[in-house]
Amino acid sequence: MRKILTALFALILPVGILVAWHTVSAAQLVSSLIMPSISSVGKTIVAELAGPNGTFVGDVAISVSRILKGYALALVFGLLFGVLMGMSLNVHRFFMLTFKAFRQIPMMAWVPLLVMWFGIGEGSKVAVIFLAAFFPILVNTIDGISRTDPHLVEVGRMYQFSRWRMFREVYLPSALPSIFVGLKLALGISWMAVVGAEMIAASSGIGFRINDARSLMDYSIVFAGMIVIAVAGVIMDAVLSLIAHISTPWTRK
Description:
Elements: H1 2-10, H2 12-26, H3 38-50, H4 56-87, H5 89-103, H6 111-118, H7 122-146, H8 150-158, H9 163-200, H10 206-215, H11 219-247
Helix pairs in contact: 3-11, 4-5, 4-7, 4-9, 4-10, 6-7, 7-9, 9-10, 9-11, 10-11
């Protein structure tokens, strides 16, 4: 019963937004050209997902494919550098200033350079996603490693654990919750990165589709695309949350 009430409570704001949207649309407070009705957007979503001429499934599949490629690279390198910098003060000092400087550059500022280096194909989009997702994973991995109980580290040293065993049995269990926070942040940022990159330099993907519809003043497609992105992002976040839940049983009371 408690879980049902919690779920219903979480639905209050989304339902409120839909009610406000319907009210504004029905009262014609805003032109339907720039704020189409819920029914119009709903029909567009159905047509684009299930209709014979719909392209949303292919568009989302392309964007998700780009996200997974860039995210996978960010996961590997973010964890690698995060662990090394968290466990070694010298490695941390060597890389931190450079990474901190690169982290301040907005991800969209990289797009012109990446397009010039990798072309308008997949490479530039994957590179943007990698840069966007890398830093949340890096920072949260370093934070998780650095928060490891020093008493546990001391016990590991007392028993002469190897560096690998120290990482596997001491640092990793302590850092995993923080790492998963970074992974979830990186996933959300990856969606922003891929949509932004596709709007600027792409001929496919959901970001391109939304931007193309905007140029044609077809705001039903724009709204529908945004909703599809939101749903896809929530599903991917839920999958990652489930993996985190299964992987960190010691964090549950």
